[in-house]
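the two lines:
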Amino acid sequence: MSDAIAVVGSVAFDTIETPAGRADHELGGAATHFAVAASFFAPVHLIGVAGDGFPSAERDYLGSRGIDLGGLETRAGRTMTWHGRYHEDMNVRDTMALDLGVFADFRPTLSAAARRVPYLFLGVIDPAIQRDVLQQVAGAKLVGLDTMNYYIENAKTALQGLLSHVDLFVLNDEEARMLSGESNVVRAARRILALGCRRVLVKRGEYGAILFSADSVFAVPAYPLEQVFDPTGAGDTFAGGMMGYLASTGDTGEANLRRAIVYGSVLASFVVEDFGGRRMRTLDRDTIERRYRQFVALTEF
Amino acid sequence: MSDAIAVVGSVAFDTIETPAGRADHELGGAATHFAVAASFFAPVHLIGVAGDGFPSAERDYLGSRGIDLGGLETRAGRTMTWHGRYHEDMNVRDTMALDLGVFADFRPTLSAAARRVPYLFLGVIDPAIQRDVLQQVAGAKLVGLDTMNYYIENAKTALQGLLSHVDLFVLNDEEARMLSGESNVVRAARRILALGCRRVLVKRGEYGAILFSADSVFAVPAYPLEQVFDPTGAGDTFAGGMMGYLASTGDTGEANLRRAIVYGSVLASFVVEDFGGRRMRTLDRDTIERRYRQFVALTEF
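prediction for all of em together
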């Protein structure tokens, strides 16, 4: 029996333009991508907010993946929408439009079940709200945290104040540089560890990821893909796959965390194969395990 | 008893400016860096040219590393000099001055011993000269090739004409994109394989390297360093460590090639710790083996 996970973050509809084409009104948002990925491994409580027009078909889809939507509050107003356009170099994107809708003044209140989860992931949201959720979940076995450049610039002190409660801080290389003021990834990670979190996982996009703790480093390449169709949600899917695998095993030791990072990479390698979260709708556990074995073959020496 | 290697390429003196400082008149050049790295594993014939003022102390140093200098021609004139300045982001550098000196019209003639080597590395030089050397070495067990953006732009046909004779084509990601016209590294490598070489190794600097053959892919991160002091010679040292390890084992199979790539990464991780090739002068095999084991610990899951 897998341990349960709670994730807090955005639920949104995305309009996405990539060099490969365009998709409108795709179900997205950090918490959604995370929850779907994690649901291949463990039961997930999604803590978020949707507008009152949120389609029941999407609710049914998430429910069909075993995601508990008791914490998906419905409020009068619009679900968050985002419109992004990727450059030819898909590491660069422009936000064409962003409407936070009901997400703007979301203040989560967790159910009794969600408050008892052993695995908590504080997805991208204001650090004050991340703290609020953290305080509602007493005694989690592992707390993960994500953030974005906006909060590093505008809520740095609040963010740093969280870190001593965080077991695994997940951020990308640009965010690590911005938060630490160090351009070298090793020095950046050492500085962030000094702020009090137990481990830092730096995501490097197509180059993989690198995990730092006080006494070890783990570096892993990304699964090489002939085509990245749409990178939207890759980071959240990575985190969801990783936390899901951890929760499914109940083992938060270094060796298992490394395997979990590879599962995260595997899930991320699928989500970029189609717009938004479409690929995840047909994915199954056997296909995941097959790519995990290919990942082993890719990296062993 | 290790198999012997021959490498052809530049011997030079480098003036190097990095954010960490400046060094003048450091022994460098692609063939030098390659030969020194390979010499930790196997006997090396260095095929190159130096001016008549080339210091005997440098000759003695290379000789002390077991490098056969019978193919290092001395000609009236100046040894090649290069002056480079790295940006704060050390992936970018400007060439401040370049004087090819006697290298400008170098036409190598190999000794009888060098013509019989089982391992041949065609370092960066005009593809016409690479072909000339290739024709002098009949029956090599493994032929490696390096090039640079200048020859991809100005001697593309000659370069492509070599590839069907090449077992291992080593180039960086920018060069792979330029040669193939593909921005995606997997598609770029597939196109280059289609030109006839058996394997393509794409170097990705601080992100490691990725090896492609018709039926397999191997991806490996770089050894994470807190400080890169001077990247000069890292690529040549990588290639030299890799070819040296291959020659020391006599095994050119996929599994051993993967280990050889890790040895190449290990050697490159040392050379960047000081200006030019300084760090290599005090390096020993035990220190290499220790970092190889750290590399295993860094990547295993």
